[in-house]
Amino acid sequence: MQTNKKGNIFIISAASGTGKTTLVSRLLKNNGDIRVSISHTTRQPREGERHGVHYHFVPKEEFESLIRQNAFLEHADVFGNYYGTSIAGVNELRGQGYDVILEIDVQGAEQVRRLLPEACSIFILPPSFAILASRLTNRGTDSEEVIRTRLDKARHEIGQAPLFDYIVVNRDLAEAEAQLGAIIRAHRQTLARQQNFIEHLLSENF
Length: 206
Ligand code: 5GP
What we know:
Helix content is 45%, strand content 20%.
């Protein structure tokens, strides 16, 4: 998709267990003009995760060297591992005219908002803490202690939700996906994104 217009940036954050990854993958499947930025991380791949598809899995030394080279738009320590968004990766997608989703945590969201105030930020909430706790428990991947830590972190992250432009409650996957799509389409029509077209129209000789 080659256009003259640079794609928009959408920051999507949520506490772990909210269903953000599922939501984003549905959104990507149904919208060919949106891409997700593939982050770098120092965490180990989970079963089924592939290098260059889900993440760029890199050793800590390489990640730290990339930090020194200013290769990241933002980076953060999440649950003891580094995660970061590559500037080159994002620019490449935007240059091709794609809208780019940054699926990042609240620390990264804060950094991007500061650097790119025009980015649109969306926070996904669970319908309740009880549902979040049961989703984390049902994953069956974590001990009770890890779940407790994740819930404490969730409370902190949800406390940051008022800093975001939009809030979506993930009660029902299809409804939340529709709301996300509506936010993205509305953001594309804001004055800031359409100013050039107005000027172009007014410059027509008629
Ligand atoms: P997971 O290890 O479960 O894939 O991700 C853990 C957390 O790290 C999630 O909240 C996810 O959104 C966040 N994350 C993933 N990539 C990035 C990134 O590039 N930067 C930041 N700041 N957070 C990220």
